[in-house]
Design goal:
Length: 321
C-alpha cells in the first residue's frame, strides 16, 4: 500500500486499517478515527484472496517438481489412472496444495514484503518497518493484536512492534502478546525518535490548550509538556494524534508526532526535538511466522579453536540451555 505524503485538507481519506476499534475515554475526539469494521473485514478477505491467488500462481508456474512415474506401457501414472476413469488430464499439471515454503517470507514472484505495524501512516512504527525493510509495503493495523493476527493469517509477511524505549521503558503489553502468540523474533530495529509539536497551519504554540499523543510520547516529552501547561489527551499512536488535530480543525490543540506525520496530515511543525533526552531510542522487534535457522553450511572459525569452542559451549550450559 503506497503512501503519498499529501496535504489532507478536505480530501484526505485514511487507508483501511486491520482490526477493530479500541474503546477510549476521549471517545468524541478519538472516536472519529474508528473505521468501519465491515470494510476492514472485506479488505482482509480481499487480501487473503490475492495472497492465495498469488501463491497458487507461483506453484503453477513452477511445474511438476517430481518426474511423473512411468508404468510398463510408457504412460505417465496420473494419465493412465485418469484415462481408465474416462478423464484425459495429466494429474501432474494440476496445482499442488500449498506448503509453508510456497508462501515464504520473501515472495518468489518478486512482489514486495508486506510488514504490518500498529498505528496510522506516519507512526514511528511505520518508520521502524521502513528502516528494517526499505522497500516493503507497510500495512497499518488498528492495534497490536491485529498486527499479530495479520502475520498469523498470512495477510502480511512480518510485523514490527515497539518493545522498549530508552526513556519511557518497556512496553509491557507487547511482552504479553509475544507470550500469547506463536510468532518468532527475526530481527530488531533501533529507531531514534525525534518528537515534534504539531499544530494547524498558522497556529502558534502559545495558543495550544491541549496536546494529543501516545502515552509513550508524553512520557518522553515531560519538560515540554509542563512548560506548555496544556491538557494531555491520549491517542492510539502519534500519527492518530496528528490526524485528530487535522481532521477536527482544532486550533487550540496540538499533537506530538514525527515530522513525517506533519507532512502526511498537512500540519505545521511548531517545535522540533522536544523530547527530554536527545538520545531517545525506541527498540522494535520484527516478528515472523518462521524462525531464522542459523546456517550450518559454513564452518565457524575461532582463533584458539577447540578451547574457545568448549568455553563458549560451556557458557550455554551454565545458562541452562
Ligand atoms: O505512536 C507511534 O507512532 C508508535 O509507533 C508507538 C510508539 C510506542 O509505542 O513506543 C513508538 C515509538 C515512540 O516511542 C512512541 C510511540
Amino acid at each position: 500500500m503506497a503512501l503519498k505524503a499529501v496535504s489532507i485538507w478536505g480530501c484526505y481519506k485514511p487507508p483501511p486499517q486491520l482490526g477493530v476499534g479500541v474503546s477510549n475515554s476521549h471517545s468524541t475526539l478519538i472516536g472519529n478515527l474508528r473505521y468501519d469494521y465491515d470494510k476492514c473485514r472485506k479488505w482482509e478477505c480481499c487480501c487473503l484472496g490475492v495472497l492465495a491467488q498469488r501463491a497458487t500462481t507461483a506453484v503453477e508456474d513452477e511445474g511438476p517438481s517430481v518426474p511423473p512415474l512411468v508404468d510398463s506401457s510408457g504412460a505417465a501414472d496420473g494419465v493412465h489412472q485418469n484415462e481408465s476413469k474416462g478423464f484425459h488430464k495429466d494429474l501432474n499439471l494440476l496445482p499442488k496444495p500449498l506448503t509453508a515454503i510456497d508462501i515464504s517470507s520473501y515472495p518468489r514472484d518478486g512482489s514486495k514484503v508486506r510488514v504490518a505495524y500498529q498505528g496510522l501512516p506516519g507512526a514511528y512504527s511505520e518508520d521502524a518497518a521502513l528502516k528494517a525493510y526499505p522497500k516493503c509495503e507497510t500495512v497499518p493495523c488498528d492495534n497490536f493484536e491485529a498486527a499479530f493476527k495479520a502475520v498469523e493469517l498470512w495477510l502480511v509477511n512480518k510485523t514490527v512492534l515497539p518493545i522498549e524505549n530508552s526513556v519511557g521503558g518497556s512496553v509491557h503489553r507487547n511482552y504479553d502478546l509475544l507470550l500469547r502468540h506463536r510468532l518468532h523474533i527475526v530481527g530488531e530495529v533501533q529507531l531514534r525518535v525525534n518528537h515534534c509539536l504539531l499544530g494547524l497551519p498558522g497556529v502558534r504554540k502559545e495558543e495550544l490548550r491541549a496536546v494529543v499523543s501516545h502515552p509513550q510520547a508524553f512520557a518522553q516529552c515531560e519538560t515540554t509538556l509542563s512548560d506548555l501547561g496544556a491538557v494531555k489527551i491520549a491517542a492510539r499512536d502519534t500519527a492518530a494524534a496528528a490526524q485528530t488535530v487535522a481532521s477536527n480543525c482544532a486550533r487550540d490543540t496540538g499533537a506530538i508526532a514525527s515530522s513525517r506525520a506533519a507532512e502526511v496530515y498537512g500540519l505545521d511543525i511548531l517545535a522540533e526535538r522536544i523530547q527530554d533526552d536527545d538520545e531517545n531510542i525506541t527498540r522494535f522487534l520484527v516478528l515472523a511466522r518462521e524462525p531464522i535457522i542459523p546456517g550450518t553450511d559454513r564452518p565457524h572459525k575461532s582463533r584458539r579453536r577447540s578451547r574457545c569452542t568448549i568455553q563458549s559451549l560451556g557458557s550455554f550450559c551454565y545458562e541452562g540451555y
